[in-house]
Design a protein that fits this description.
By secondary structure, the protein is an alpha+beta fold. It has a single domain, classed as Pseudouridine synthase, CATH 3.30.2350. It has 6 helices and 13 strands.
Length: 286
């Protein structure tokens, strides 16, 4: 379930999200970002009224400084600094952070691998209208591990059953929509992805499992503390995702899953290096 919603029962008062604090000290604070919530205000979403940045500022009663971002439909660990100086120090070491995500994808992924597949920069028609349109593709690497396989008794297209995998994903670079685009490139799009995904499977999850969200969760963030120099590991629980997986037949304990994520090492994975063709994956959009 997403973080509890607080507010009076009276119809006149708006409901305000209370963010779940995962970690806090005198330098940093991390929250469990709900799926569907923007990190900060955007002129592209002028109708929105709730944002993680402003909500956390009001919740703590002090300014906060975002250190990275999560796409609106993605849930999980989101880290902020409590001062501009700490934000500067964290920015200098951000390339050393280890981010681990959970995702449910279409099909059965058989083997772990390190994908090296460059991505063209995705430009927004409005926000990036003045940006160069001829930039070269950027290097992008993602490590992935299949953790579980599922078969659901629902026909999809010409197939009598639907097959899915639970993946652990670690982006080694930070390109826009990298995990979603890399999974789509491997023909295992993330369920609930309305841009790079498979509309038939997205619709199945809405219809049969009452799942409306992108099944991508930032589960674990690890870094060195900017002041103490000690390692910090922050886990973001995902009870809604775990409940969904259990409904699909998964029977592992949540604690064992996070222990498994913490033990992953990409350095020994087989490398798959793909050249860049035209990026035109389309499996039936929503």
């Amino acid at each position: 379930m997403p973080p509890a919603l607080a507010g009076a029962a009276g119809a006149a008062e708006p409901r305000t999200t209370v963010l779940q604090i995962l970690y806090q000290d005198e330098c940093l604070v991390a929250v469990n970002k709900p799926a569907g919530m923007l990190v900060h205000r955007s002129f592209l979403d002028k109708h929105e009224t709730e944002f993680v940045l402003q909500t956390l500022r009001d919740q703590l009663g002090q300014h906060v400084f975002p250190l990275h971002r999560l796409d609106r439909p993605t849930s999980g660990v989101l880290l902020f600094a409590l001062s501009a100086e700490i934000a500067r120090l964290m920015g200098e070491q951000q390339h050393l952070w280890q981010k681990t995500y959970l995702a449910v994808v279409r099909g059965h992924v058989k083997e772990a691998l390190l994908l090296d597949y460059p991505l063209k920069e995705q430009l927004d028609a409005v926000a990036d209208k003045k940006a160069r349109q001829d930039k070269a593709p950027q290097q992008a690497q993602t490590a992935l591990w299949p953790l579980a396989h599922f078969v659901l008794p629902y026909p999809v297209g010409r197939y009598p059953q639907a097959r899915y995998s639970l993946l652990a994903l670690q982006p080694l670079t930070g390109r826009k929509h990298q995990l979603r685009r890399h999974c789509a490139h491997l023909l295992h799009p993330i369920v609930g992805d309305t841009t790079h995904g498979d509309g038939k499977h997205n619709q199945l999850f809405r219809r049969e499992l009452a799942c409306q969200r992108l099944l991508l969760h930032a589960a674990l963030l690890r870094f060195m503390h900017p002041v103490s120099g000690k390692p910090v590991s922050i886990e973001a629980p995902a009870p809604d995702l775990l409940a969904l997986l259990q409904g699909m037949g998964w029977d592992a304990a949540a604690t064992s899953l996070w222990q498994q994520l913490a033990a992953l090492q990409y350095q020994q994975l087989p490398l798959r290096r793909d050249a860049l063709p035209d990026e035109n994956f389309s499996a039936g959009k929503d």
